Amino acid sequence: MTKRLTTKYKTHISRQLLESISEKSNTAYYVFTSDHVNRTSSTIPTPPDDVRETVIDGYRNMIFGKRVTPNDAKIMVKKIDYEADRLYDMYDDNDDALLTKDFFVVTNEVSYYHVYKCLDNNLRSNSTVQPSFAHITGANTNVYQTSDGYRWKYMFSIDKTTYDKFATDSLIPVVSNTTVSNSAVDGVIDIIKIENSGKNYGNFTSGTFAAADIRVNGSATTYQISNNNLSTVNGFYTGCLLYISSGTGSGQHKRITDYFVNANGNFITIANSFATSPVNGSTFEINPEVVITGDGLQTTNAVARALINTFSTNSVYRVEMLDRGAGYDYFTANVIANSVVGVTNQAEVRPIYSPAGGHGADAAQELGSNSFSFSITFSNTESNTIPSTNDYEKIGVLKDPLFANVNVEMKNANGSFLNNEQIVKITPVRVATQATINLNSSTITCNSADFTSQFSANDYIYIKSGNNLSHQVTTIQSVTNTSHMNLNSNGLFSCTEALIYQANISSSAYVIQTANVTNILVTNVSGVFSSDDTFVGLNTGAKAQVNNVIRNDVTKGFNTFVQMYKYTGTVTANVFLNDEKVYQGTNLASSTANATIHSVETSGGVATIYTTNQIGSFTTSNTIHGASSEAIATINNKYTPELVFGSGEILYLENLEAITRSNSQSETVKLIFEF
After folding, report:
1. For the chain, what are the domain ranges?
2. What is the pLDDT of residues 440-485, one digit of tens each?
3. Which of 425, 397, 410, 543 is nearest to 24 (CA)?
4. What pTM, to 2 d.p., does this model score?
């Protein structure tokens, strides 16, 4: 048995990852730094995939992290810079190795980079003319032909800022272009490939209509044609296409159903009349038709003609689509020439199936994406929320960590929260009014509601009294009918004019301390609590809004974290050294607690000391000592790491050469995930 994980599936994984960051109830990914103590070996080891590395040491050595936003994530495709006088492969649905080839290019046009897919490489000739975005208008948005005979499909553009943020030596980001994707048409035929050029297709000509040539004998379908090279054999141009190339009626085409010659001249009969009749001076071209046969389910018939190379035994050098058609899921094609033409070698042509949805419908999938990128910048101190000193030798990606010891400053509070109570952030959407709920009853009723279409079992529901003094968030056990539901918990209040909402829960936490009427301390915070968010206690029904979020005595949200122990106090002797051991007690060997110094920041006489790999617990109003520097500091306040130890999942680890931070620099980390 042989199996293959398709590129489409790999692109699907990337797209799911991108969507998980962008969705309303999104997944939180943080890029973090770790390992500030320099490794003793000059060799950079590969991190092991074990519990100690991804949980224990992963958290004990973690320094800080920053949340990935939708602007920090992109699906990536291979980078193929356009170079003149080079052969590019063409898109071909029949080419099993297509995704390993250079069938698309990126061009640099100063402030933008543009991506084009090669649909036709002019019988495998070198490209000598770079495609230009200035020409992408009108019909060129479908197929754009440069003067070297290459035909391209414009896919999308990348602004320079995005390009610089994500591009690497081998990859570029995919940027959505809804104009291109929305205009893509499923089942069109953009290219018919020439497998064998054939010989002796002499049934082509061109000329200019005179006034007397049009509507011969009053017939709207009979035209006289003349030039010095016309065949005098009846039927020679029968089955060809008449194309008005310039002048009145230009762009129209009709099939020639008969060609005949008599004493009065050379005449053609077309299948039906033109919508706009050509006039004196309109020019025409006659070429063999490429007849396209579908399965009858196409919504629009495609029309194509063969262009003939007179310098190569009248062979077919290109098939030009006059109408791309639509809705084809099967087709064949043949170059038509009446038997009297004397073709000695029949041309072989093959229509190219476009991707599902048409070229440009799904750029990432069409260009064979199998990789994804996080590109995130640690900007100095990130507004004084992360330290900007020392260095790090490891980076990683952490998914959905839980935050600890978060002080939520409240406003507009109703009721009192309890210790150990779960609180949830809600974005309520009202669905019913005048509902009845009773204290200690699990039934809720509302004669004007439509519960069966609004709710299902296990949905969260938010119930509010008419006077806005009582609140409850709970889940639905069952929907009895349009007006009756049973809840998984009893009512916390009684009201006959209650309002019912879809709760739309996006974040939660557990209360560990009710500091006062305006502050609660919470832990195991999932999601984000921001200013003006509404949250409700599941046990008490207490409700409040967020005024501020304070973590470790710093007013800040959840965009960054510091996973180190933090101490504030006063340095009384010497200067602590980065990466040295610090301890409490008589000496390091007999210490009751010790840790490794990451950095010490001093402002206004107050020292902020960050440590990792702590053993034991430092006590306040006591001194710590530097094992190497013999520095001494008195600790006044202590703060634990901002994440719950071991929460979330470490998905990625990479060891680096040491990167040293400073107040005057930022570092951009580009992580590439290949599937």
Report:
1. 194-351, 406-555, 564-639
2. 999 999 999 999 999 999 999 999 999 999 999 999 999 999 999 9
3. 425
4. 0.87
